[in-house]
Write a structure and sequence with these properties.
By secondary structure, the chain is an alpha+beta fold. It has 3 domains: 8-202, Histidine kinase-like ATPase, C-terminal domain (Heat Shock Protein 90, 2-Layer Sandwich), CATH 3.30.565; 217-359 and 372-382, Ribosomal Protein S5, domain 2, CATH 3.30.230.10; 397-618, MutL, C-terminal domain, regulatory subdomain (Ribosomal Protein S8, Chain: A, domain 1, 2-Layer Sandwich). The protein has 21 helices and 25 strands. Strands 1, 2, 3, 4, 5, 6, 7, 8 and 9 form a 9-stranded mixed beta sheet that branches. A 5-stranded mixed beta sheet has the order 10-11-16-13-14, sandwiched between helices. A hairpin with a 4-residue loop joins strand 23 (524-527) and strand 24 (532-539). Helix 1 packs across helix 4. The longest helix is centred in the first third of the chain and has 18 residues, at 162-179.
């Protein structure tokens, strides 16, 4: 086998596949270079989702004429000199791969001027350098990237729609605004201003990205423990989102997604959030450079800590103290409100409207001296954190079923198109398995009585069957509701006042991509502004639906495979309707109702309620005799 030495043209395209996979990653790399160059003003302009053009303009230090060719070279950088520098990285970029990778798959031009010198330009097409030429320009650098992936058709084919690419670039830019609140940013897409900040602090940056109402629902924190600094904004206990696109973490100024910190924050909120609810936060974590490795991901999207225990413990203790409102919160809150004494932590559901933790200052005549702070090294040596991550005359049945069938049910789930034939085989196998589940002729069951007005006891031969009346009736109603909905005719009902949903760029792109699905089930939905949608009509069965909650459920699908799983949303809502209408535990049934229930179960001994609880438990005679020590 002959070993070939790859040419620069080939290995730069390979490197581009790791460093530059989509337009957003080009923007990320170019803006990071501008920040590292000391820029205080950065403008980003894109066209057609960045596929046609990306231009980044900064007022940083610029690139000298003789260094312009080196800027396009692989592994050429101004940010590292020796290998030891990797253990104390203070810049966003350091590998020297980005510009060479971008230039290999685009038509690129750099115009730059350093202080006291003339401006020069150098173009590069598909990795082929042109000549350094005189140019006009202010101090700083302008990098223009045209026709991204023009020479890599396979990669170009897999790019997303312009709207989705623009949304992802918007997400990157939002994090730059938050990460560097001292820098003035302007972001334009197809000539329209999407974001603009003025370098006047983090609070202003949060307002520029999320709006003033977001800031009103946040708590500003600043803490230092064991040489680790944690600061930024946390959403209060009742301020939550449908997905994680509203979570931003910056480690030493670098935007990352880190499981250790993410788990610490999520677990701190666990007592206050319900299913499909995610906390809002903009958090900064500053740690000594020597205890964090940023060189673990091709596009630097994650970092590795020397000791995850200390990081998890510090973040969890600070966030949970602030949310719980205990006395330690006084040390961490930037502004402490005047409120009543602290509430207890034990809560079974989200608390009432709450905009700040209830904390009270310690009652003491003399201020106690501050406790000595351990350094990171001391904490690593002496502290141990528990980091286990939690991962009438007619039976009531007829009256209730007639009523529940008139409930304004949620949106119908359209049959989902399976991407792979194997998925279809799996689903068919599941249906076949259900058909093979144990069944028994109803006539063979002898009713023996009830327990606690909840459990119905039947016997057949050497087996006893205990039926949870609520779970069984709930499943029967659920199946009827589901069948009724799936065979309905789609009829839309216009709304007197249209409903407007305001989301972020990623949410808007997700909804726009799924407009056809929503329209098929009866929604009249359209784009309304840059990141908002307007609903003018809903399915006739949905006139009383909580649209805010419905769209929250829909957008929570972004957490999975980025496809609206209306079947799951429908199941949850139908299950809730069936649960409310079913007979309850503790409700005594008549003999006629008992007989009707077992008949409608159709002998299904494997029946489960829509939430997954068993409706029938089988107890064999031998199991009972073992309990009484008749047999061993």
């Amino acid at each position: 086998m002959k070993i070939n030495l790859l040419s620069a043209d080939v290995y730069n395209k390979i490197a581009a596949g790791e460093v530059v996979d989509r337009p957003y990653s080009v923007v990320k790399e170019l803006v990071e270079n501008a920040i590292d160059a000391g820029a205080t003003q950065i403008t980003v302009e894109i066209e057609k989702g960045g596929k046609k053009r990306i231009r980044v303009t900064d007022n940083g230090g610029g690139i000298a004429r003789d260094d312009l060719p080196l800027a396009y070279s692989a592994h050429a950088t101004s940010k590292l000199k020796t290998a030891s520098d990797l253990f104390a990285i203070h810049t966003l970029g350091f590998r020297g791969e980005a510009l060479a990778s971008v230039a290999a798959v685009s038509r690129m031009e750099i115009v730059s001027r350093t202080e006291g010198a003339d401006a020069f330009s150098l173009a590069c097409e598909g990795g082929a350098l042109g000549e350094v030429l005189p140019a006009a320009g202010a101090q700083g650098t302008v990098v223009t990237v045209d026709d991204l992936f023009y020479n890599v058709p396979a990669r170009l084919k897999f790019l997303k729609s312009d709207t989705q690419e623009e949304a992802d670039i918007g997400g990157v830019m939002a994090r730059f605004l938050l990460a560097r609140p001292e820098i003035s940013f302007t972001y334009l897409a197809d000539g329209k201003v999407k974001y603009r900040s003025f370098g006047d602090g983090l609070a202003a940056a949060v307002v520029a990205v999320y709006g003033a109402n977001t800031l009103e629902n946040c708590l500003e924190i600043r803490a230092e423990k064991h040489g680790i600094k944690l600061y930024g904004f946390l959403g209060n206990r009742n301020f939550y989102k449908a997905n994680r696109t509203y979570q931003s973490l910056f480690v030493n100024g670098r935007s990352v997604v880190n499981q250790t910190v993410g788990a610490a924050v999520t677990n701190a909120y666990a007592s206050y959030l319900m299913k499909r609810q995610y906390p809002f936060y903009v958090l900064f974590l500053d740690v000594p450079p020597e205890v964090v490795d940023v060189n673990v991901h091709p596009n630097k999207a994650d970092v590795r800590f020397a000791d995850n225990q200390i990081i998890y413990g510090c973040v969890y203790s600070v966030v949970s103290a602030v949310l719980d409102g205990n006395s330690k919160a006084l040390e961490y809150l930037v502004q402490v409100p005047k409120t009543e004494p602290a509430p207890q932590k034990e809560v079974a559901a989200p608390a009432p409207v709450w905009n700040a933790p209830n904390v009270s200052a310690p009652q003491a005549d003399v201020e106690a001296p501050p406790a000595p702070q351990m350094t990171y090294a001391e904490a690593k040596k002496e502290l141990a954190f528990d980091i286990s991550i939690p991962k009438g005359s007619e039976p009531r049945f007829l009256e209730q079923e007639r009523a529940v069938m008139e409930v304004r049910a949620p949106a119908k789930a359209q049959p989902e198109t399976d991407a792979f034939e194997e998925n279809k085989k799996f689903l068919l196998a599941q249906d076949a398995a259900r058909i093979r589940q144990p069944r028994m002729e109803t006539d063979a069951l002898v009713y023996k009585g009830e327990l606690f007005c909840t459990y119905l006891i039947y016997q057949s031969g050497d087996c006893a069957y205990i039926v949870d009346q609520h779970a069984a009736h709930e499943r029967i109603l659920f199946d009827k509701l589901k069948e009724k909905w799936e065979t309905r005719s789609v009829v839309s009902q216009p709304m007197l006042v249209p409903f407007i949903y305001n989301g972020n760029a990623q949410e808007f792109a997700f909804l726009e991509r799924n407009f056809p699905v929503l329209r098929e089930i009866g929604f009249d939905i359209e784009a309304f502004g840059d990141t908002s949608v307007r609903v003018s009509a809903v399915p006739s069965e949905l006139m009383e639906i909580d649209l805010v909650g419905f769209f929250g459920d829909v957008l929570s699908s972004m957490e999975s495979l980025r496809a609206i799983k209306l079947s799951d949303i429908l199941k949850d809502k139908l299950a809730t309707a069936a649960c409310k209408a079913a007979v309850k535990g503790g409700e005594l049934l008549t003999e006629q109702e008992v007989r009707m229930l077992i008949e409608r179960m159709n002998g299904d001994l494997a029946m489960k309620c829509p939430h997954g609880r068993p409706a029938v438990v089988t107890l064999k005679k031998t199991e009972v005799e073992k309990l009484f020590k008749r047999i061993v």
